[in-house]
Amino acid sequence: MEQATRMRGRPRYDQEDAEAAEAFRSIGSKVQLNRDEAAPLWVQLRNQVEEAINTGLLAANSRIPSEQALCDFFGVSRPVVRAAIGSLSNEGRIIKMPRKGMFVAAPREHVDFMTANLGVFDDLTAKGHKVSTRTLEVYRCPPSEKESKVFGIPANGSVVRISRVYMTDGTPITMTRISLPGHRVPGLENILSENQSIFGTIRAVFGLTVKRADRWLRAALPTKEEADEMGVAANTPLIEIESIAYDADGAALEYYEAFYNSSVARIHMAVEQPSATVNGVDRT
Predict the structure, then answer these.
(1) PROSITE patterns from the entry (predicted)?
(2) Which of 203, 216, 206, 208 minimizes the C-alpha distance to 256?
(3) Cys-Cys with 65: which of 13, 16, 106, 199 at CB 3.0–4.6 Å?
(4) Architecture of 116-260 per CATH?
(5) What is the DSSP letter of 41?
(6) Number of CB atoms found within 10 A of residue 198's CB
């Protein structure tokens, strides 16, 4: 006598969202996680999922499988999946909704890189823009006095300097001069590719991630050469940004100076006023 069985609890992921499940099966069949690479497995997995989001293989608002389902899809342990998804969630690529699950975040209209641990490339890409770069120069050299102070490296050390123009949907949005401590990114100047995120590269190759950043802004006029690179008139006021990004241990990981054209995309900054209490009583 056959006994009918009935599934209890939440339905299986592939029953709830067959299209997204098929997309993850497709990703899982293509993912090549190499335990011999310098980048940790969670970084490799994170980058693979992010690429699927960037290319549209994982559509905005589609549901992400559970951690256990992801373990099965990619053949990795739960801590690897948890770290990868946690990183994407922290960067706004994936949204976690209590009692509903995880979803691919929808594109947004402004930039948040000023108040997030993201570079402009990653922030604009996360919002669904097509980001491209025009790299003006990449080279290794001794540090300047400013770079020595920021990174705490001696004069006989080295930095990798990168000058780039970032474009969103074909329009220049920022011109950035970036410095990274040479001893932490060996050979970076030989492997960095055009239209590739610097943060993404150092995360994938060296396992380096940014925890926080200090940024300073002021209005400034570009030189004629800088204006030409940005595609604006020489008398066009731009936002000048100075930034120092730090890793989880508090060590400076990146220093840059940039011109930003806010007419291309506004900068969004959220401010929360802390409550003032006296003897436990709110006085705001």
Answers:
(1) HTH_GNTR
(2) 216
(3) 13
(4) 3-Layer(aba) Sandwich (3.40)
(5) H
(6) 23
**pLDDT for 225 beyond 90:** yes
Q: Which two tokens stand for residue 284?
A: 């705001």
Residue labelled with tokens 């990274």: 180
pLDDT of residue 47: 84
Contact 39, 203 (CB under 8 A): yes
**Rounded to an integer, what distance in angstroms lies between the CA atom of residue 238 and that of residue 73?**
47
Listed by start position, the domains of the chain span 13-104, 116-260
Report CA 136 to chain centroid distance, whole Å: 22
d(CA 63, CA 16): 9
Class of domain 13-104: mainly alpha
Greater confidence, 41 or 97?
Answer: 41
Cβ contact 64:29 at 8 Å: no
Contacts of 201 (CB under 8 A, 6+ apart): 188, 191, 192, 193
